[in-house]
Inverse folding.
């Protein structure tokens, strides 16, 4: 065998090993559901809703929140609005003749970005449990009860939930979320999970801390900081929400690359947490470093190495490797890969993370972005 081929195989094995280890750990522990000692609880709740030009969907979102199975006298809604459209007026009208939940509307004159807006909203939240939710998401009716039951465990100070259905029908996203849900259950059973999701994250109000004004991963940052304070932050698949997503390769890049930038930057900022905080710093953070920071570069190197090896063995015919890869991407983004769709979804996220890393190295990544209009359409 030639040296290039050996190098390509070795590289592939190195890249795959941490994934195989996580799979084995999963098979060994078989984590199911939440690791918390859940107990029925009914704390007072502050629902935090940030809005930027959501006039198209905000009323649907409010209907959805008010329909949650929870006593609305125990709920306050803290909206922080930075819109230039009618979002604010729509919200005010909506609450004009309602007693509950109570509305706290924070109005920004100028858009500063999501993280500073959220810091203000969290500071204004006065109830025992704070739930942050994005406008372009739908929550299962029992989310507040499920979240409260998790927080009733003394060790647990934050809980996020599972993306159960992808509005807009993207199979790429559904495939990725399926894998992510298993990983997050494993992490939660080991200690705590890293990623917290924008559509639904719940926190004990006492545990809240300010987030970096430039943050592009606000929910995850909050969870990570809370874990660093000592409490567990977990994922519970019984906490369910829906969010819209694209399948098309190009359309996925914008949102996923930005989210990737937020996560990579956060991991790098908190590199000193590696090795500390029990299995969180010894297993969960290292795996996420591997998946988000290191593996995307290795995946790109694998493609190069395999192409080089194939060309060295088969001459020009070796270029069928990148051509075949392009074919797989083309099929994958059209949701045509069947059972391989989930593997494609992981590849898709590696592409985003690589692009995100390059953007970060180029100094990109301030705290504002274009809100995706197309994803709002599936809500009407
Ligand atoms: P994505 O899901 O990660 O693509 O992020 P979105 O564009 O859906 O934004 C998440 C939530 O934050 C939505 O409810 C937006 O309306 C809101 N949002 C985004 N940017 C800002 C901002 O600058 N200020 C405020 N107050 N809310 C924002
Ligand atoms: Mn969104």
């Amino acid at each position: 065998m030639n040296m290039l081929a050996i190098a390509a195989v070795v590289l592939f094995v190195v890249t795959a090993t941490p994934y195989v280890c996580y799979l084995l750990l999963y098979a060994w522990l078989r984590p199911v559901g939440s690791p918390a000692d859940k107990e029925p609880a009914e704390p007072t709740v502050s629902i935090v809703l940030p809005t930027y030009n959501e006039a198209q969907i905000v009323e649907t979102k409010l209907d959805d929140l008010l329909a949650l199975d929870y006593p609305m006298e125990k709920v306050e809604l803290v909206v922080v609005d930075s819109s230039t459209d009618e979002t604010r007026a729509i919200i005010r009208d909506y609450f004009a003749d309602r007693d509950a939940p109570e509305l706290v509307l924070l109005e920004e004159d100028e858009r500063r970005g999501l993280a500073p807006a959220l810091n203000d909203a969290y500071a204004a939240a006065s109830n025992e449990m704070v739930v942050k939710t994005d406008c372009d998401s739908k929550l299962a009716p029992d989310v507040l009860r499920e979240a409260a039951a998790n927080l009733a465990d003394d060790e647990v100070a934050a809980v996020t939930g599972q993306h159960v259905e992808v509005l807009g029908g993207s199979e790429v996203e559904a495939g990725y979320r399926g894998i992510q849900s298993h990983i997050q259950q494993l992490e939660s059973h080991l200690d705590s999970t890293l990623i917290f999701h924008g559509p639904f994250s719940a926190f004990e109000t006492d545990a809240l801390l300010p987030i970096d004004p430039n943050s592009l991963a606000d929910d995850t940052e909050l969870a990570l900081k809370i874990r660093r304070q000592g409490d567990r932050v977990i994922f519970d698949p019984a906490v369910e929400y829906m969010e819209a997503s694209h399948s098309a390769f190009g359309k996925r890049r914008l949102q996923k690359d930005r989210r990737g930038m937020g996560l990579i930057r956060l991991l790098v900022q908190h590199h000193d947490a590696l090795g500390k905080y029990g299995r969180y710093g010894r297993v969960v953070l290292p795996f996420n470093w591997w998946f988000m920071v290191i593996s995307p570069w290795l995946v790109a190197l694998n493609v190069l190495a395999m192409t080089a090896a194939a060309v060295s063995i088969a001459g020009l015919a070796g270029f069928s490797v990148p051509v075949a890869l392009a074919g797989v991407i083309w099929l994958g983004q059209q949701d045509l890969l069947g059972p391989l769709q989930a593997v494609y979804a992981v590849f898709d996220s590696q592409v985003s993370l690589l692009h995100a890393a390059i953007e970060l190295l180029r100094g990109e990544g301030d705290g504002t972005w274009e809100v995706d209009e197309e994803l709002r359409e599936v809500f009407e």
Q: What stands out?
A: DSSP finds twelve helices and eight strands in the chain. The first helix runs from residue 3 to 29. Residues 134, 136 surround manganese (II) ion (ligand 2) (CB under 6 Å). The chain has a mean pLDDT of 93.
